[in-house]
Every structure is written in C-alpha cells, then in structure tokens.
Amino acid sequence: MLITTRFAPSPTGCLHIGSIRTALYAWLFARSNKGKFILRIEDTDVKRSTQSSISEIIDGLKWLGLNWDEGPYFQSDKIGYYKDIINFMIKSGLAYKCYCTSRRLDILRKKQLLTGKKPKYDRKCRDLLKSSGDLEYVVRFRNPISGTVSFFDEIRGEILFNNEELDDVIIQRTNGIPTYNFCAVIDDNDMNITHVIRGEDHINNTPRQINLFRSLGFNVPIYAHVSMILDINGKKLSKRKEVVSILEYKSRGYLPESLLNYLLRLGWAYGNQEIFSINDMIKLFTLKGINRSPSRFDVGKLLWLNRFYIKNVSKCSIVEHLKYQFDKNNINYSNGPDLIELIQLVGTRYNTLQDMVNCSRYFYDNHIILNADAAKKYLVKSSIVILEYIYNKILHLDKWSLEELLTMIHVSVVELNMNFSVISMPIRVAITGNTISPSIHIVIYGVGKLRVLSRINAALIYINKN
Ligand code: GLU
C-alpha cells in the first residue's frame, strides 16, 4: 500500500503556524514511509476563499521546502463532478433535499436550547415523498439513525460517537455548491488518501465523513488528529498578540530550518533531542510520537533556534535568504561587499536575518543615517584631529586588505598617542552612523575606500557646522 497523505487547507486567511505544523507532520509521514504527499486547496466556500490566501499557502510551503507530489488540486474545479455524485445519492436514497427555511431551523434550535437539548436538525424533510417544486433547498446526507461509529485515532486512540447525536449533515448548500464534509470525502477517496492527518477541530466531522465513506462503499482512511497550539499561558493563540502567519516569520528574518525544527518539536518528541535536520526528521518521525495534549508556543525558543541555525547552516543558504531581506528593505546588495563576504565580515551572531540586515546596511546605502546621540558624543571638535589623520592614512594606503587596515589602526594608536577606543569611536560613527559595529578595520574594509573618505569628509563638515 502506498502511504498517501494530504494537506487540504481552506484558503480563507493567512497560512497559520498551526496548519503548517499539521502539514509538516503529514509531509514527514509520507516522506518517512516513501509515500506520497498531495496538496489540495479546499476552496468551495467561494465567498471566503481568496487568491492571496492561495498564493500564501503555495509560497509558504515552497519556502519551507514542504514539496508536494501532486497538486495543487482545486476543489472549485470539480463542482460539476461533485454535483453529479450528489444527484446520484439523492436518486439512490443516500441523500435528500431539505426545504426547511433558516427561520424554521432557527426557531427549532432555540426551542431545543430552551428545553436543555443539544441543537440538531429534526429530520423533517428526511422522508418527504415528493419534492417541493421551486423552493430553495439544501441536500442532506441520510445519516444512520441508530448504532455507533468509531475510529482508531493514531494519536488519541479509540473514539466513538452515537449516530443518534449526529445531524444529517448538509452536503450541498442552497446555492448549489457542495460542502466541505462532502468534497473532502470524495477527494480523500479519489486521491487514495491512506492517512488523514489534520487538526483536532475536525474530530467532530470525522464520524460524519466515515458514514459518508461507508454509504458510498469507499474505504475509510486512517485518522490522526493533531492538537491545538496555544499561547505561552495556555490560551488560544491570538492574531493580535502573536505572529501566527508563516510568511510573517519569513519576513521577520527567520530561517525555514528554524521554523520546521521548532514546529516539529512543538508537539512531537524524540527523547531529549532538540535539533533535527530534515533527514533526521524523516528518519525518526512517527505518528505515535505526537503528543495528544495541546502545545504552548514559545517565541523565545523559536528565536533561540533561529540564532542556532543562522550560525550553523551553510553560508550559501543564508545568502539566498539574505537577498530576500535586502530586497524587502530596499537595499541594493550589489552596492557593497558580496553577501558571502558580508557574512565573513559581520559574523553570524544574530537572532534574525532582519537584525543582520539592519546591522549591515551602512555597507550598501549611499548615505548613512547619523544617530543623533552618537553624533553628539563623538562627532565633536576633539575628533577632528583623529578623523583628519585617518583620512590621510586611508587616502595614501596602497593596498586594501584587512591586515593592512588593522596595521594602520595599530600605528595610529601609537602615532596619535591615544587609546584605541578614543580613536575608533569617532571613525565608527562617521562611517556607520552608529556606535555599534564589528571591529573598525573590518568596517573600513567593507565600506570601501571612496565611501569611507567621503563619509569622513561629511563628518568633518558636520563637526564644523555644529
Ligand atoms: N479544509 C480544512 C481546513 O482548512 C481541512 C480539512 C481536512 O484536513 O480534512 O481546516
């Protein structure tokens, strides 16, 4: 049997970290069993589905490297096909048209609530003998009235429902469009999905879907329902407080490796191991290792992992992600050291690539932004002698190398008879606009001779003016 899993998002919002964790588990399960992973976009809810959400799903999965073997399939392409099956189900008595108005259903629901009953459709139209002409209708599945439906969840074990508790689920809306519960069953069958790995919010849909599978004579897949991700205090993640969109993490300078590693460990464990390469993940992943209790999202831990990966992934891979960050910040990265060289110059001790770019922009921008406090403290009359001295030294330097520049700085300490920091700070502020940077010879080297000279000049003009 070819293990086949799918990721079946509804494109109605951002690509949420919870959905991506589920996608990762489904992807890993397929990969670790040499199976197939399918991408299916569940876009039958025309009003809520958006093109931007579809692009976000595709971009997010690509960025993370969660590649799919088939798809993306779009359910909206298959409406006619679904409707043919629904018509067949009506003809063969597996489904029926329900003409109840939403007003009637509303009153029914309120009455049930008032008498302490669980709201449920009373099956008024289930046994209507003839159709009601032109009246609006939905199509409902004729769910078994008695007995039970149970399944073994790979994460949670045996789960059992009484059919009596289940509604006759709507499979086609009044606008003629089939619903999620129906389309998911048809597609899971057509795509030979062996394992449905999805969020626990779908547990209640599962018995309805199993009944649908059985009524159509289909094989029922194996289910695994993944728990929710909560915030650090155990409350529902809120979009206002936490970043929940995968692409927002990309934009903030996280590496895909960090997110994958973090999301994997958030709800799945292999002893105490913290760091997992993609190959480790594929080798070690099992559904049984998924925790059934909800996980708590800890952005501090994610930052720690990101710092780890920035230090440890290959420079070439950092360069690819850095290009995106530079473009996003409108910095022309060809206007300065090449990015591999930049990493050598500034090092990799950053929490995010966004931090790295923020700390490197003076290598590329034509004009620096002077930090007012730094300028006030270091671009002062007593710095003129230092800046003029260094200007001349640099102007007459024959060779542009890190060693040459380091020697030049050492010589200046002796010749000016000043402390190293007394010399380096005004130069640093003149060249970078700020008081924090890598060693001064590195800064001078990376910024380049012409730009260094013109920035020192500008600093001297600034001092004379103020
Ligand atoms: N489209 C559903 C959602 O985004 C997923 C359904 C499923 O995995 O069966 O929640």
Can you give me a brief rundown of this structure?
The protein is mostly helical and 466 residues long. The chain is 46% helix and 11% strand. Glutamic acid binds at residues 8-10, 42, 184, 198, 202.
Q: Based on Cα principal axes, name the global outline.
A: elongated
Gross CATH architecture of the domain at 366-465:
Orthogonal Bundle
Q: Please count the beta strands (DSSP E, at least 2 residues each).
A: 12
Task: Give the strand order of the largest sheet, numbering strands 1, 2, ... along the chain.
Answer: 1-2-3
Structural descriptors:
19 helices; 3-stranded parallel sheet; Arc Repressor Mutant, subunit A; zinc; Glutamyl-tRNA Synthetase, domain 3; mainly alpha; binds glutamic acid; metal-binding; aminoacyl-trna synthetase; about 45% helix; Glutamate--tRNA ligase; about 475 residues
